[in-house]
Queue: 4 jobs
Job 1
Amino acid sequence: MIARYKYRFYPTDQQKHSLAKLFGCARYVWNEALAYCHTAGKYLGYKHLASRLTKLKGSVQWLKEVSSVALQQSLRHLEKAYQGFFNKKGGAPRFKKKTTNQSATLMRSAFSLKGKGVYLAKIGVVKPIWSRELPSQPSSVTVIKDSAERYFLSFVVEVEPEKIEAKSPSIGVDLGIKIFAACSDGMKYYSPDYTPLYNRIAQLQKQLARRVKGSNRWERTRLRIAKLHCRIEDMRTDFLHKLSTKLTNKNQVVVLEGLNVRGMLKNRKWSKAISRQGWRFFRDLCKGKSEKFQRELRILNRWEATSQHCSKCGWHWGKLDLSTREVVCDNCGTQHCRDVNAAKCIEQVGMGYRPTLKRTRRLSKTTEPKGSVASVSEASRILAL
Ligand SMILES: [Zn+2]
């Protein structure tokens, strides 16, 4: 399977200059091709755009100053973006801006590993900080400059799946806002508190608005804001990586709830908190790691009402108010933590053994879709990613 390994590096001033050129050209090629497709009214295909690029180089001289591999790669990325759009996996490709993250990708022919350095075509040798060893020869490298002006090399490498026996057969995970993840084994994981950092950003945003756009002071404040955003991003990524590793490593099957994130984002009261959580990223991480550890990830149908049932007896108590944290089951008298109970239900539905669903359906008179109690109907409601 394929993985990305990312390392920070500090380019010299000369290299910064060459890198800026590389990013600029890669961006230019993307934007130019995109604009051309817009005028044509359709995506014209990689081959057509690549042969156009060759002609373009005749008139735009400075495109020759950077690695041609990176420019072709820009067109490949555009193709991927269009494919994603056609397959309804993403929005339409957009024009790239100078102020956001900059990147350019080099394939095998345009870079090589030289001792502790990495040679990049027409840039020179850069020395990344090798925080961990590369597991195999990389097939490509993406050079990144983020908005806080940090530089990274991101290698694509082939990795072998790890074979570690799972300690537990399955776990259900309920994702929330106050508690990031409540698990069916009773564990609760809280996400780091980003509020102080967000407050600081809000302050600086006000400051930025008072500055003259483009001035030195404006630029300094902009950079400080970007750095804070990066810090939050790093904290979040770190937390989500650790948690997803822990859950997938320990359990053979991880069951998550399919969340209607887009629908939830429409709720203005919650939208900010939700977008800060990184649920989707967490799901993607779990997916990648289940592959790595040879585990299985199951995603429930998003309409499965997992918080409405008792995980012990299957009693249906109906919709709970969001503020209700503890529930006592009217039927069996068990006291539940709301989130852990939901996690247990998620696990039960995901594994196909929700208790005595039939009886509760009759008692609670809810209108659930018809189907048999166990495996078949439950399994059919489990959506593959
Ligand atoms: Zn009960």
Job 2
Amino acid sequence: MPVADYKTYCRMLDRARENHFAYPAINVTSLTTANAVLRGLAESKCDGIIQVSTGGAAFASGSSVKDMALGAISIAEHVHRVAERYPIYVALHTDHCQADKLQKFVLPLVEETERRRSQGKPNLFSSHMFDGSALSLKENLDLSAELLERFRKADLILEIETGVVGGEEDGVVGKASDKLYTTPEDTLQVASRLNSIGGRYLLAATFGNVHGVYKPGHVKLKPAVLRECQEAVMREYGDAARFFLVFHGGSGSGIEEIHEAIEYGVVKMNIDTDTQYAFTRPIADHILKNYDRVLKVDGEVGDKKMYDPRHYLALAETAMSERVKQAVSQLKATGTTSYNM
Ligand SMILES: [Zn+2]
């Protein structure tokens, strides 16, 4: 199917919250990883979200170009074309963009969407994240409000973050502090600043999440923080103000915590570390098992079939698509596609 338009994406999010499941939002950096996500979603009969980080987008533009906006456009155009061949909906999203990168990443992409809309073409991306979690809440919400005003006019959904996710992602290291847990007071401020604007937004409220790699059990998640935030906002602004939440830094978290977070309104879970590993695992296996055919050892010529990148990248695509299917199942989203409904 084509990439989800605004109405379809909104319906996807509404259905997830009503029916207590969440969409995987998987980071991609290349054609092969994007294809792996589409395949995994299609085989799970589940809609989903493909996302690109600033670093991933710079990588996709080529190591001598390193233009994050260009790389993101390139991946998005690929997804727009090939998504037509899969019987599911996919939304296109850009991941964490700190304030100092807005000019180089999100804003040029919004301009690109605005230009396309003025020519009667579909949006390039469906949604963008602004990560103001390193700023004061006031500065974070000032910038978020400004973006949401603009996004509303272009049928774009905004994702924001309050509190700080620990760990490291894309070279950005989170600081350990009390901001690891969002407070109901913080999220009430979010609602009071953003809800009157009328655009649609998703909220990544931290509840002890950590970006990167940890063994299961290491991460001290407190999903109840999300419930407290939802209760507070509904008490103050009514049921309609209930947040659509995003789960960041979920690698290594247990299935019970994931399910609990879904009960409290998580509709999107970011997945990167686990699919990165799934992609690389069969490549390592291939090379270690066949090193004397992948390499030209002792004056031999190797085996062209074994070092052709297609050979091991196809194995990686398959393994990553399997990991996507596992994520879909953990998020209780298998078979939930709204395509053809
Ligand atoms: Zn985050």
Job 3
Amino acid sequence: MASDPLCLLAVHAHPDDEASKGAGTVAKYRAEGVRTVLVCCTGGEEGDIHNPAMDLPEVKADIAAVRRAELDKAAAIIGYDEVEMLGYRDSGMPDSEANAHPESFASAPLDEAVGRLVTIIRRTRPHVVVTYGDEQGGYPHPDHLRVHDITHPAVDRAADPDWYPEAGDHWQVSKVYYSVWSKKRIELMHAKYLELGLESPYSDEWFSRPWQDDRITTSIDIEGFADVRFDALLAHATQIDPESPFWFGLPREVSAAIHPFDDYIRAASLVDADVPEDDLFAGLRAQASV
Ligand SMILES: [Zn+2]
């Protein structure tokens, strides 16, 4: 419909993933009037406390509520209009006991988890969905793999009125993207640490990961919005150490200026738009307005 505002929906696994992946993109689109929806699949209950200042018994005792409050703060900083919890428990790292917890995202029946995402898609009616890719060898967290596994079926079934008829009117998502960290960005960051005489947090292991730069179709210029990532990360006080050399080892303005692009692989599109693209909504601008 011509009067529908454009909508972007991002699916993430844990509180803090929305800060480390695509925050600048969301901030940029929100600033131009796109409606933005965050789906967070788990409560992050299994996350270790990485900030010594937050390693307190009262924080550990109420970790789900603490992480939810951190998520709301980060989402507000980034500019998400809505935060939706899919309602599962953090499955923990690969092969940990938490994988088998009956409420864990990893052990949830697939049709049930897909159905929950379908309900959100039909209600929020996004034109673009951003999720995780089919290649996650660099960080194969069970919940991250699950985010990928539920998104494509949810997009397909949201458009099919025969699936989950109780979940609202069907809705066709137009484009699906995988958010990726490019090797190019990591190389530029690594070089900058060395140039400034700092110890680089990027070990050889980083460079031997299965990178996918050759699959990137879409790069979003986030100049002016790259900085939002740092404040959003800091909002996750239990997860992010403000002294972390990985996140904050470079001066903020230096880090924000290195490769100020968020990179994506376009996984599906029902609209005509040539790749490479510089806009997640390419091909949709004529049909909807912001
Ligand atoms: Zn995560």
Job 4
Amino acid sequence: MNLMTTPKPATSAKVTTAAMMKALVYQGPGKKALEDRPKPEITAPTDAIVKITKTTICGTDLHILKGDVPTCQPGRILGHEGVGIVEKVGAAVTAFKAGDHVLISCVSACGKCEYCRKQMYSHCTTGGWILGNKIDGTQAEFVRIPYADTSLYPIPEGADEEALVMLSDILPTGFECGVLNGKVAPGSTVAIVGAGPIGLAALLTAQFYSPGEIIIIDLDDNRLEVAKRFGATATINSTDGKAWETVMKMTGKRGVDTAIEAVGIAVTFELCQKIIAAGGAIANIGVHGKKVDLHLEELWDRNISITTRLVDTVTIPMLFKTVSSKKIDPKLLITHHFKLDKVLDAYETFGNAAKTKALKVIIEA
Ligand SMILES: NC(=O)c1ccc[n+]([C@@H]2O[C@H](COP(=O)([O-])OP(=O)(O)OC[C@H]3O[C@@H](n4cnc5c(N)ncnc54)[C@H](O)[C@@H]3O)[C@@H](O)[C@H]2O)c1
Ligand SMILES: [Zn+2]
Ligand SMILES: [Zn+2]
């Protein structure tokens, strides 16, 4: 572009003829709408613009809509999961080019800061979980992805797009925060509290390590039924408040080697503390908005470990291989399909999971 001859736009006149797109926009607690928004542009040389082909809704989007996530301000396009086609890349992007089929990580990683060098992408000093939170997200026709080289993953030809949408967030979350931190081992006894998409993702990926028993605990019989189909060896409906006694009976009063908390409330974290065997590991995944008690008076001599983690998505390439080789089939989590212009119906269905039996919904842009 010849800058010398480019006329300055008149300040009073609107000169923008930006191309528009459809996007799901957070409008403040309890409010969202499908809006026409300008298509995103490259703003840094490390950016890519991706045309979304498929995206989904996460429980975290529902948290945002409740007003639980103050970093996400009204006007934000939601969504941090998805696959698509690269439309254009900034001058510094070397790993991707226009036309490439890509998987988007829910976590943006600069690849260079102290945390990224430690593979703690979730704490990247200029990235982390910003997509659909601090910057516009994937529930739109197009999205701007910062640090494209280290935040996108190539999708090989012939791969199943829908299965891969599950790799943006829920599979790595269940695996990294639950299974890896919980040190699931061959022959061990595992309990997963919460059979939502995240708990079920932990259930699918725990089986890489051949634990002896996987006990799934939830309040929803439908989800427990799904858990059985996904490989749970036992399920417990904890509505009666007696899950603790049932687990102790099942394990000969010993408890479980790994207790994975996949709900995010006090009562389920307390249950994990009650059922953990000596030497065991409690792996918290749930996002806790309220105070939770830690019973050190019971646990100080039990040789246990407790971990917390924000998903880093460092295991996406490894999980990709397990999906390609059909070791796991994350497509099993998909219950509903919608077009982007019906995204409000998709939220309605996903938000009423007990009634609609929804797990993950696919939204086609
Ligand atoms: N650490 C991370 O990086 C990370 C990433 C993504 C999601 N999360 C969190 O993981 C948690 C699970 O996510 P999800 O999408 O599967 O949520 P979800 O709401 O779909 O599932 C939660 C499940 O817990 C069950 N449940 C509720 N109360 C219960 C109780 N008292 N006892 C037993 N089960 C109970 C519900 O029936 C539901 O099936 C959420 O807190 C989410 O915010 C954490
Ligand atoms: Zn999420
Ligand atoms: Zn970084």
